[in-house]
Structure formats: C-alpha cells, structure tokens
Design goal:
Elements lengths: L16 E2 L7 E2 L11 H4 L2 E6 L10 H5 L3 E6 L4 E7 L5 E5 L12 E8 L9 E10 L3 E3 L10 E2 L1 H13 L28 H16 L8 E4 L4 E4 L8 E6 L8 E7 L8 E5 L2 E4 L2 E2 L3 E5 L7 E7 L2 E8 L4 E6 L8 E7 L9 E5 L2 E2 L1 E5 L3 E5 L7 E7 L2 E8 L4 E5 L3 E2 L4 E7 L7 E5 L2 E3 L1 E5 L2 E5 L7 E3 L1 E5 L2 E4 L4 E3 L9 E5 L20 E5 L5 E5 L4 E5 L5 E5 L21 E6 L4 E6 L4 E6 L4 E6 L9 E4 L5 E4 L5 E5 L2 E6 L11 E2 L8 E6 L5 E5 L4 E5 L5 E6 L9 E2 L8 E6 L5 E5 L4 E6 L2 E7 L18 E6 L4 E6 L4 E6 L2 E6 L24 E3 L5 E5 L4 E6 L2 E6 L22 E3 L5 E5 L4 E6 L2 E6 L18 E4 L5 E5 ...
Parallel strand pairs: 3-10, 30-39
Antiparallel strand pairs: 1-2, 3-6, 4-5, 4-7, 7-8, 8-9, 11-12, 11-20, 13-14, 14-18, 15-16, 15-19, 17-18, 19-20, 21-22, 22-26, 23-24, 23-27, 25-26, 27-28, 29-31, 31-35, 32-33, 32-37, 34-35, 36-39, 37-38, 40-90, 41-42, 42-43, 43-44, 45-46, 46-47, 47-48, 49-50, 50-51, 51-52, 53-57, 54-55, 55-56, ...
C-alpha cells in the first residue's frame, strides 16, 4: 500500500455532511465521544464516512462504500494504529486502542480500501484517503475545528496525492494550508495546488476507480509541463512498489523495486519525504539509493526524467548524539545534535522538557534548537519528529524564587511566590520556614498560597522543590499573628456622651462658649460650643444630651435632636410652649427643639443671619438674636429685621432710636415681659436697653469705659460684659466676664451679686466666691440665677446669695479616674503607647496628664492637671501639653512634654528629664528642643525624638543628644540623601523598628520618611494627608494616622487602609474597622504580636482598638 505524507493538524471526531463539486456527495457523521481534557480519551473513537464513486455495471455508490476497510496509519512509523469496517452509506466508527496517544508531529493517513473486480476477496484493492493530524482533536482536509467532520472521498484523495507528488519539487505545497480547504461546495485552492490541479487529479482518480484500478499509484506529475498523468495504465509506466529495508538511518542503502526506471542510474531520483537521492545502481526492476541527509520518515517518490510517481512509506530512525547545555532556566536555548530531523517543516519537529512542549527555533539535517519553555521542570528531554520519539537524556531546570509579594504575613493571608522552574500543583513542594503549605494556584512563574492557621510564627526561608530541584527565597519570611483583613473596631476608653444616669457634676463640660435656658419643669439646658452639643440637666442633677452628636455639622432636621448635628451652639432660650431655641453658631441658623417630642427643626437662617451668638424670646414668641454683625435682629413670622445697631461698630448715643444707634460687638440679649430689650455690648463695656414703647436706646449699666465699679449707672464700669438676663421683677443680671463678676441692675443701681472672692466658694456667699470669665447668665427668680463659670469649667447656681455647682466637674474634658475607662473623659489627647502586658498609656494633652488604661480602668500616672514644668513625684508633677509617648520593654515611659520643650522619663516612680532645657531653642545642633511632638525608644534604650520645629530627629544615647536627621531648617525638605544634609519639614511622628531603622512622618511635608544607615529616603511621598503619629510592628508594617484614617504601609511601600472610612465623625464600633468613622486621630500603637492596633481618636475623645 502506498501512502502520502502530508503536514496537517488533527481531528478528533467528525459530524455533518459535505457536498463537493469534484465527485459524489461526501458526508461525515458526528462522533459519539465525550471530551474530558485528556488527549487519550478525546482520540478514542474516530467517526466519519467513506465515499467511493459508483462503478457502472457493478454496484451503487452506497453498495460499494459498504464493508470497506478504514485504517489509521502513522506515516512516520508506517504502523496501522487501528482498523474497522464501514457500515451502509460508508459510515464508520474507528475505535482506537486504550492507551493510544496520537503524536502531534506525526502525519496520519485515514484510508478506506475496497476490493476491486466485483468486490471479490483476493482481488486488488482500491484506496481513497485523507490526511489527519492531532492537536487537541483530529483535524483533516475537510475540517479545521477539531472533531467536526472527517470525509474520505475521491476528492480528498486527489488533494492528498497532488500535494504529496509536489513534495521536494520547485512547486512544493505548504501542507498546513490544506487544512479545511474541502468545504461543503468547493475546494479552496492553496499555493501550488490550484482548483484546476485538483480537477485534473480527480478525473484520474475517478477514472481509476471506474476501471477497477487503485488511484493512488496511478497518478503522476510531469514537472516539465506541470501536468498530471495517468501512469501504469497504458504507455506511461513508472512505479516504486516496495523498499528494502523499509527503515534506515541517514547514509544507509535502500533497494527500491519497481518499473519504468532509466538505464542511467543517476537519472533515477528517489525522494525520502521530499529529500532527493540519486540512484547509484540499477537493474531493470531495482534501484540502489542512499538515505540522504535531511531525510525524514514518510512518503517516498521516484522521479525518472520529468515524471514523478509515489512510492511506499520509509521510516528514518531518530538518532540523538548530544545536547547542550544540559541545564538552564526557562528561556535557555538548547541545541540537540543527531539525525532524522525535518529541516523543511519546522512544525514536524517537537521537543519536550519533562512533558512541557518547547518552541523549536531552528532545524538543520543534523541539529535542532529549542527554547526551554515556561513551566518546564527537571526531567527527560524528549525529541519527536514525524511521529517518532526519542529521549536525549535528563535536563535540569533550576528552581528559582525571585520574589515574594510580602516579607511577612499572618495565617489567612495570601502570598504570591514568583520565580521560574515551578511545576504543577502536585509537582511542587512549598515550605515556609520548613512547614509545607499547599498552593491555591500555580503557573510556571507564579505560585499563590494561603498561609494556614497551623503555620507556626517566626522567620525563615521560603522554599519550592520541583523534580528534585529546590529554590530558596533570598530573605526570610516572617509569620505573625497580625491584624485580620476583616478586623473590627471597638472603643476601649473615652466617652463623648454621658452614660445614662451620669450626674452632671461628674461630667466635664467645655464651657468657654455656651448658653443656658430652663423649661417649665425646671430642667436646665446647657450649650457647649466646643462639644457641639446641648445638654439637659434634670432637677435631680442627671445629665444627658438633648441635641448634637459631639461631631460638628448640619443634619437631622425633622428627626430627633439627639441624632442631629449642630455646630458650635451658643445661646439658648425657651418659650412659653417649652420649645428650646438654639443659636447654631457655625451653621448661621436658629434651630428649635420641641421639648415635648425631641424633634429638631430650623426656624431661621442662614439667609439674613451671621454667626448667631445669642437668642432670646419675647412676648408673642418673637425671637431676638445677636449674630456678630454689630446689630440685634428680630425674627417674627419668619421675617428678619434689625431692631438695634447700624451694622458698624461704634458707641451710639443715648435715648435715640435703637436702629440708628451704633453698637460695639453685642453678644448678649434678653427681653422682659413688657417687651423691653436688653443688650450686652461686649466691646462697648455697657448694657443697653431698648424701650418697647419708644424704640429708643439708653444705657442701664457701664459708662462705656472698661473697668470695675458698682454704683449709679453713670459711675458704674463694666469690662467686656458677655451676657445679660432679666427676671420677672425687672432686675437685670450681667455676666461681667473680664471682671469675673455677676452684676445686678435694680432701681438704677449696679451691684455685684457674685464673684470677687479668691476661692471657689461653693456652699458659701456668692460674693465671696471666685469666678473666672463668667460668660453666660440666666435669671430665674428674685434672687435666683444660673451662670457659666467658663474658665473654671462649671455651671453654677446662686440661690438667696449662696453659690453652688450644678453641672461640670471643674475640668476641661476630664473625668473618670479610678473608674471605667469607657466612662472617662479626656481632652485633645495626642500620643498613645502599649506595653508588653497590653496596658495602654496616653497623653491627655489638654489636661496636662499621662493616663493609663489597664483592666478596663483608667488612672493618671503623671501630672496633676495643671500646666507647668515641675518634675519629681509623678502625680505631683506639672506638664505642659504633652504630645508623644513611648514605653520600653521594662515599662519605662518616655514623654514628649511638648510646650516645655523637653522629653521626660518615668522610671521607678521618678520623673526626670532626658532631653531639652525647658525652653525652646533653634539650630541644627542645639541642645534645646523646639516643640517636640513624638518620642520612640529602641531595645537598647536609645531614645529618638521628633524635634518638630527644629525640623530634625535627634537621639539620646548614654546621656548624649545627637542629631541624626534633618538640617535644623525646613528649606529643601523632601530631598533624599545623607540624613544630616537632607532637610525635614516639621516631623510629627517617629518610630524605630527592631533593625534600628527610624521612620518619620512630616506633618507639614505630608511625607513618610525612612532613616537607615545614615541615609534618608522617602517611602510615601504622596497620598498622605497631614500624617501625624505612626508605629511599626515587629514584621516591618508601618501604621500611620492621616486625615481621618489609619493607613498601613507594607514592605513594598504599598499603602492600604486598616481603619477609618476617610469621612470624619464617630461610628462603627463593633463593625469593620475600615467602615468606621474616626475624627482627627493623632497617634497609633500596636502590640508586640501585631494583632491589636490602638488608635488615639483625638477629636472623638476616645481610644479605639482594632483587632
């Protein structure tokens, strides 16, 4: 049997019918084969249809096609892989042996043969064929989509024979171009095989079939005329019927038996798969030839003169002599020497490295060059040519780890290992510090793993072992129990709102600006501008929040006042219906709370109002307000008009129309039952009255010159009266703020009714009590009034001449020592640290204290609450706005006593100075500090100080202060380089890791810097908004507070958010830390294990924990 070698791709199964113009109807039947990804199973059954032409007087086409033998023949090995017999209409299902794996480099004939001469057994055989190759499915002349239709027909035979005869001639056919050229209706011509060529060959094929001849050895090619000839039927005789041997190496001798040979040996040329070899000897029926260099397994042909005819298949064994190099990374070029390679068609040569196919880049008769592919691992180097396969030897692919996505992580984290030489999931053994982990995903250059919960903590190398080769990471990977990706947040200290049942005298109010009012039930209302809240104090002395969330803003109208936002509320007033009016200063509005329902609404502003400082209610519910415009305005029926003042600061006249009389910063306003209006003229140092009947304005207290004097109106002197109130008897009370007194005007005489004393005076005579900047007054009876003693942080009441405190504890945002940390108050806290036991220390900056949270309780450990610069016994010492704090392994505290320009140490119950002279100094190397805001300490006890306004970092070691970064000036800040010549800009935070690297935040420069080995570099130079404090954990993660968030900077300087949504406020306790709201956080600390993060949520007056 003669077979043609073609270079095509393969086909798995075939379905559908084809109608062709060159012969009878050609139909393929779809295979009944499931594909599961394995080539062995995808190739198990080949289904299709064989079509023979009708032969007159013999049988119909269907009858002829029935009982034909269909065979799959490997042209490289000349081996028949499987055979079957067609059913009616030529349909066949060719079952391939289990275990059979088609070779991608092999060309296969799918051949149907039928006996001739009445189809009687023993007669000659007629063959028709198509060509198939395998590439994830069988592909043939009639299909390019795997498994979509195999047809064996006279037309496919004509194409196959024509292409084979042109092999090695001046007009070779690119066999790959023939794939799918046989469609339902037409043959699509390719270069060097035209439609006319196929028509001519098909005529010979059909004629042979009709004449009971095998068409495959009956077609010849005349190269002189480029025409197709019928051979061995008539005058033209040329045939090569057999070869001996049927296989041989390059240079071996082969005897070709046939007929029609030339008498001159060299005129007879035998081609071995297109590679020519002239005969060296001949007889009438034989030729002797040598297998030429470049010959490969496949179809032979014989040429005599200009005529070529096809011959049998010949197998050229694949011989491999050597290869170099014997090891290399993916991308390495490997050259293999030997014979049996196919230099004509690159795709007929294949190389695999332990089963992974390489790219063949060059082929000669004796060399083959391929590139080690990605995914290759150590193992056998195998060469395949035209279906033959041979192992060259073992090739070593080193396993290399070139990078890790992180140098530290915690169980549950995903880590990506990059490198080369990795195998499949089952081929790789991955270890972290000796412990095996499984891969989530694999590729030749990347492995993704999820750190298991069983992975022990510690540092060690990452290794990957594949096919006996092991690669190791350049550095160690540290496993730690860090913050989980879904970390939650919770407050552990600080209360922005009083808890239920809290006594008003145990709650600290920031009363530097505010307001007072009382309803018909005797409930007292206190506005705290700095708290952005209005408080309610019951007659029983219990405090709660009526309006505001402690976060300034504008929201909540139509809902509950306690859930609404106000911004800097000041004056208050209550009308006859128990509606509370609020001077919402920053929002330029008057807000009203219906006390019966608790709902809040806006009744005036912002149009027509400035920043409202006070409000009063007159007869008929008319509102009067002061709003910083040097006027008093009336709000009636929603209309705003000016009733006093011209809008320009000045000292107006007496008994003249109020609306045309200048006022100087009116801040207080009151109305009596008759509608007379009283105005505290703050910068005018007097109280004015607008007569309800005439509208004229007169002075009732103060002569317009700042001073301190009781007596007649003309002789009395006030100094910055801030507020005014009038009782039912018409007596007028004045908060004479700069004189620290409450004055009363009655019967034309001004007198002092509270203040002038040297001590607090609670429980004693009001006139003997000490007041400090009383700024609000509320008269409630003949001898009963309330006042805000602002600088003593108290709301006080005078009844029958006796003074007492009714709200606030006398401190600015300080309460709770000795009790639950969650009920405590603190003021503008800045720094935070955590010791080895998990106790938290923080700087209560505004209260000039260092406080400690341990076991849920809060205490003061340094400072007596008074600003000063004393040392000695910790609780008797005085600090001034301490900001930063650090704690070492022994529990020693280091404190940046900011406004004292020094750093202190608390050790063994003694407070001492570590650095600083107590006064500010400037310069690069001065021993004085200038507003140090942060401090850190390393394991050796070296102290690092952010000397903020000297724009430098200094260290203290062995009692010596040394500059280690910064120039003492902010000029040129941001440049990287030698630390002592690289400028910093207001460093606000400093931290040190276990390797001695120092990390610095520049608040004004908005950068994160690193000092290592004497060099200053920028880790994050954009994307941080006013960074303040920072900390670094044992794994090298840096945590920075900026804006209203806490950010994490990893070892690749990638910045992510670990807490805070970026929107200022308070929310989220108990939920995801990244969804929570923070408000102006100043510092952050983390425990040794890296599992708990502590945030000084400064403007929320809280410490919050993330874990």
């Amino acid at each position: 049997m003669r077979r043609v070698l073609l270079i095509l791709l393969s086909l798995l199964l075939v379905a559908s019918c084809r109608t062709l113009p060159f012969g009878p109807t050609e139909t393929a039947i779809a295979p009944d084969l499931a594909t599961d990804g394995r080539s062995e199973e995808r190739s198990m059954v080949l289904s299709g249809r064989a079509l023979f032409a009708e032969r007159a007087g013999q049988a119909t086409m269907d009858e002829v096609a029935a009982a034909a033998t269909v065979s799959l023949i490997n042209t490289g090995t000349n081996q028949t892989e499987a055979s079957t017999v067609t059913r009616p209409n030529g349909r066949f299902d060719l079952s391939l042996p289990r275990g059979f794996r088609p070779e991608s480099t092999a060309t296969y004939y799918l051949e149907a043969s039928k006996g001739l001469g009445g189809n009687k057994p023993g007669n000659d055989v007629a063959r028709i064929r198509t060509i198939a190759r395998y590439a994830e499915g069988w592909i043939s002349l009639s299909n390019t989509v795997p498994n979509e239709g195999i047809v064996i027909s006279p037309t496919s035979t004509a194409i196959a024979v024509g292409a084979a005869l042109r092999a090695g001639t001046a007009k070779p056919v690119a066999f790959a171009d023939l794939l799918g050229t046989l469609s339902e209706a037409t043959y699509t011509p390719v270069t060097n095989l035209s439609g006319a060529d196929v028509t001519a060959i098909l005529a010979i094929v059909n004629a042979c079939l009709a004449a009971n001849r095998d068409p495959i050895d009956a077609v010849g090619l005349d190269t002189a005329t480029d025409t197709w000839k019928k051979v061995n039927q008539g005058d033209i005789v040329l045939a090569a019927t057999s070869l001996a041997p049927t296989s041989g190496n390059i240079g071996s001798t082969v005897t070709v038996t046939g007929k029609g040979f030339s008498q001159t040996p060299s005129n007879n040329v035998v081609r071995f798969n297109g590679e020519p070899s002239a005969a060296s000897a001949r007889t009438e029926t034989t030729l002797t030839v040598t297998v030429p260099a470049g010959a490969t397994s496949g179809q032979t042909s014989v040429q005599v003169g200009n005529l070529i005819a096809l011959g049998p298949n010949f197998t050229v064994p694949l011989n491999l002599a050597s290869y170099a190099p014997t090891s290399g990374d993916p991308g390495t070029s490997v050259t293999i020497t030997g014979s049996g390679f196919d230099p004509e068609v690159l795709a007929n040569n294949a190389v695999t490295f332990n089963g992974t196919t390489a790219t063949v880049t060059a082929v000669t008769a004796s060399t083959l060059t391929a590139t080690v592919p990605n995914g290759a691992i150590s193992g056998n180097l195998v060469v395949k040519v035209a279906g033959l396969s041979k192992t060259a030897g073992t090739f070593t692919v080193p396993v290399k780890i070139t990078g890790l996505s992180a140098s530290a992580g915690k169980p549950g984290d995903t880590v990506t290992i990059t490198g080369s030489g990795f195998g499949t999931a089952v081929q790789n053994t991955i270890k972290f510090n000796g412990t095996t982990v499984s891969a989530l995903s694999t590729s030749p250059t990347s492995l993704s793993v999820k750190l298991p919960s069983s992975l022990p903590t510690g540092a060690g190398p990452v290794t990957v072992t594949t096919a006996g080769q092991t690669g190791s990471s350049a550095g160690d990977f540290t496993v730690f129990n860090g913050l989980p990706a879904n970390a939650t947040i919770q407050s552990i200290a600080g209360a922005s709102l009083p808890e239920a049942g809290r006594l008003a005298t145990n709650w600290s109010l920031d009363t530097l600006a505010g307001g007072l009012a009382r309803d018909s039930l005797g409930n007292l209302y206190v506005a705290s501008s700095n708290h952005n809240a209005v408080y309610k104090v019951t007659p029983g002395g219990v405090i709660s929040v009526l309006a505001g969330t402690r976060v300034g803003g504008l929201s909540g109208d139509g809902g509950q006042a306690a859930s609404a936002q106000v911004s800097g509320p000041q004056g208050l007033a209550v009308d006859a219906a128990d509606n509370l009016y609020i001077a919402d200063f920053q929002n330029r509005r008057i807000r009203m709370v219906a006390l019966s329902t608790g709902n809040i609404s806006t009744v005036a502003g912002p149009t027509g109002l400035g920043n409202v400082t006070n409000v009063a209610v007159g007869p008929g519910g008319i509102l009067y307000v002061t709003d910083g415009t040097h006027t008093v305005k009336k709000i009636e029926g929603g209309i705003i008009t000016v009733v006093a003042g011209t809008g320009t600061s000045g000292n107006g006249g007496e008994n003249v129309p109020a609306a045309s009389t200048a006022l100087s910063s009116p801040t207080g306003v009151a109305v009596d039952a008759a509608g007379n209006l009283y105005i505290a003229e703050y910068m005018g140092h007097r109280v004015r009255k607008v007569d309800a009947a005439t509208g004229n304005m007169v002075t009732i207290a103060g002569n317009g010159t700042g001073g301190n004097a009781d007596g007649t109106i003309a002789n009395s002197r006030l100094w910055n009266p801030r507020d005014v109130s009038v009782n039912g008897s018409g007596d007028v009370y004045i908060a004479d703020s700069f004189n620290n007194r409450i004055r009363k005007v009655s019967g034309g005489t001004v007198s002092t009714v509270a203040g002038s004393g040297a001590s607090l005076g609670d429980g004693g005579s009001a006139t003997s009590a000490k007041l400090q900047s009383p700024n609000v007054i509320l008269a409630t009876g003949a001898s009963d009034f309330y006042l805000i003693d602002s600088s003593q942080y108290r709301v006080r009441r005078v009844t029958s001449g006796t003074i007492s405190t009714v709200a606030s504890n006398g401190s600015s945002n300080f309460s709770g020592d000795g009790g639950s940390a969650l009920s405590a108050q603190f003021d503008t806290s800045s720094g935070i640290a955590v010791d080895a036991s998990g106790d938290v220390y923080f700087t209560d900056t505004g209260n000039h204290r260092i406080r400690k949270v341990s076991g849920g309780l809060i205490t003061t450990v340094v400072g007596n609450g008074t600003s000063g610069s004393g040392t000695g016994a910790p609780l008797g010492a005085t600090l001034s706005q301490p900001s930063g704090i650090a704690v070492d392994a022994a529990g020693t505290l280091y404190i940046a006593d900011t406004n004292n320009h020094r750093v202190l140490k608390l050790s063994g119950g003694t407070l001492s100075v570590v650095a600083g002279t107590g006064s500010s100094g400037t310069g690069a190397d001065t021993l004085a500090l200038n507003t140090p805001r942060a401090v850190a300490v390393d394991s050796a006890g070296t102290v690092y100080i952010a000397d903020t306004y000297n724009h430098r970092i200094v260290q203290v070691s062995g009692g010596t202060l040394t500059r280690i970064a910064g120039t003492g000036s902010s000029t040129g800040a941001g440049a990287n380089g030698p630390a002592l010549t690289s400028a910093l800009y207001a460093p606000s935070g400093v931290a040190v890791d276990g390797l001695g690297n120092v990390y610095i935040t520049e608040y004004d420069g908005q950068r994160l810097r690193k000092l290592s080995g004497g060099t200053l570099s920028t880790l994050v130079g954009s994307g941080l908004s006013w960074p303040y404090g920072l900390t670094v954990d044992n794994n090298g993660f840096i945590y920075v507070v900026e804006g209203d968030r806490v950010r994490k900077v990893d070892q690749t300087n990638t910045v992510t958010t670990v807490a805070g949504s970026g929107s200022g406020g308070f929310s989220g306790d108990g939920g995801l830390a990244t969804s929570a709201k923070l408000y102006g956080p100043r510092d952050v600390a983390i425990n040794a294990a890296g599992t708990v993060l502590y945030i000084m949520d400064t403007s929320n007056k809280r410490i919050r924990k993330v874990q």
